Amino acid sequence: MALFDRLTGTRRPADGVPPAPAEELRSALLGLSRPDAPYVVRYGAAEGADVVAEWRIAEPAWQSFFLESRITHAVRIRMRLDRDGHEVRALEEQWEVTRVGDPPRLQVASTYSRGQDRTVTRRWTVGRGDDGRPEATETFRFDVSELRDPLRDTVVKSGWTWRGVVFGKL
After folding, report:
1. How do residues 150-161 score in pLDDT, each as one tens digit?
2. DSSP string spanning 73-124?
C-alpha cells in the first residue's frame, strides 16, 4: 500500500474477487441504512454523488442522542461509483457543530474540512468496582469509523476499490 493510499484510506479488494455490478453495489450500500443506526445511507444525486452517508443529526428522533454525545463534528461521506474502473471515490466532509438555545439543539458552524477523520468521542464514569477500588467505566463511545467502516467493507467485499478523496473533485 502506497503512502498516499494510506493517508486517504484507500483499500483494494483481495486478489481474485470479481467486481459486482454497480447497481448491486449501490443496493448493498443503501441496505446499510437501518432505523436503529445513527447514520443514514441514501441516494445522493442532489449532492453530486451516487450515494451519501451521514449522521442523523437533523432528525428529531436522533437529536437527543447527538446532544448527549457531545460530538463536535458532523460527518458526511459522498460516494461516486466509477463503473469502468470498479472504484468508489469517497469524499469525507466534516463540519463543526455547536449547541445553541434552550432547550439545546445542534447548529452547524462555519468550520469545514475534508478528508479522512479520526474523531472519537468517549465518556467515562468513575465509580467503585466490586473490590471497592476506584475504576473508570466507559459509558459512551462515538467513533467516526462506525460510519466509514461498514461502507468501505461493503465496497471491498464487492470487489471494488475504495478510494478516499482529499484533493480535487469527487
Report:
1. 999 999 999 999
2. EEEEEEEEEETTTTEEEEEEEEEEEEEETTTTEEEEEEEEEES----EEEEE
